[in-house]
Amino acid sequence: MSNKESSASSPAPSPLSPYLDAVANIFHPVASPVLNSYNLFHGWKESMGLVQPGTAENLTKEVQQVHLANWFFDGARADISKVVSANPAFQLTHTFSLGSSSRPPAYNFGAIFANANTFLHGSVDGQGQVTARANQTWSPHDISKLQAQLTNKPAQTMVQIEHDHLAPHYTFSLKSMNPGLLDGTGIHFVSLLHSIGPRLSLGFETIIQNTSVSKLETSTSYLAKLTSLPDRSAAASAALSPLGGPPIAQPFSPSWIATAQLQPSGNVQATYYQKMSDKVDVALDLQTNFQPASPLGPSQRGATATLGAKYDFRPATFRAQVDSNMKVGMLLEQRFTPAFAFLVGGEIDHARNTSRFGVGIQIESTTM
């Protein structure tokens, strides 16, 4: 009885089974060595302790978070935002700015929508200029981005499309600005950043400028990133990878980061970021400027070093920096309540005997 039940439960052989077995026997001598070689190579890479190096675009992200380039403003500014929904996140923003006498007052209205996989941001100013940004996360490895700027000013309308593929040990990115779908014109970027050890990552970024069908120019920059050793938190985040699959290497937060970029013109940009403590970050940026003589001007040989620090207190964030051109700047963000913050900043250029000053407020309201 048990033999009959076992024979009844087992599936009947398919008429195609002999043919499938014959095809498998034909390709097995070729496929087996290839698969074995791949498994050996994959095991060798895993034994090296490789990490996810991040994207080439964010190579100096930590330095940019410390320095004032992306944070400083002059004149008066007011940011008023209203949180309509928390999940999914939906927020409306109003920005009023008043600059110097050469820059008229400006108003900007924006809206932000975000959930676990999608981020949408759009804004329009008083001059009718529309900007839009969209990020879509397809999987833990693939992110697509879109940026657009629409304006009535000539040669300032822009569309940018990019895609990042974050593999366990490398990141491959494609970016295109004002792409021509029919003739392939536009400015295209191809970048690769690969981890070759637990601390060192190397890569490149190639720019392809195809301004017309008959004119094509390419230039390549070479990238290097050296960090401190990954800590245990990075290993723990990799062990908790989603979807129940194999562990995925996650970007970690090192205590220090050193980067170098060799540009096509021969100039070098080197940065160093050090996390001194939970509240203090320090960053150094060195950029050379070597230009040969041309009809536009004489040759130039020089370098600029910028040293900055960021202090995070419970109610405030203070940024300060000084560079080799005798320029000193600071920005203080004082948050009196979770819904109200006061900003004040100043910059003095001793070489040019000029100065800038900015003051602003941030107000956030919610209906919840």
Short synopsis of the structure:
This protein is mainly beta and 368 residues long.
Could you walk me through the main structural features you see in this protein, from its secondary elements to its overall organization?
The chain has 368 residues and is mainly β. The protein has a single domain (48-308), classed as Porin, CATH 2.40.160. The protein is built from four helices and 19 strands. The chain has a 19-stranded mixed barrel. It is globular and about 80 Å long. The protein starts with a helix and ends with a strand. One of its GO terms (cellular component) is mitochondrial outer membrane. Its main location: mitochondrion.
Strand and helix map with partners:
Blueprint: H1 2-9, H2 17-47, H3 61-66, E1 75-86, E2 89-98, E3 106-114, E4 118-125, E5 130-139, E6 142-150, E7 158-166, E8 170-177, E9 186-195, E10 200-212, E11 215-227, H4 232-239, E12 256-262, E13 268-275, E14 280-291, E15 300-312, E16 316-323, E17 327-337, E18 340-349, E19 354-366
Protein name: Mitochondrial import receptor subunit TOM40
Membrane topology: Multi-pass membrane protein
GO molecular function: protein transmembrane transporter activity
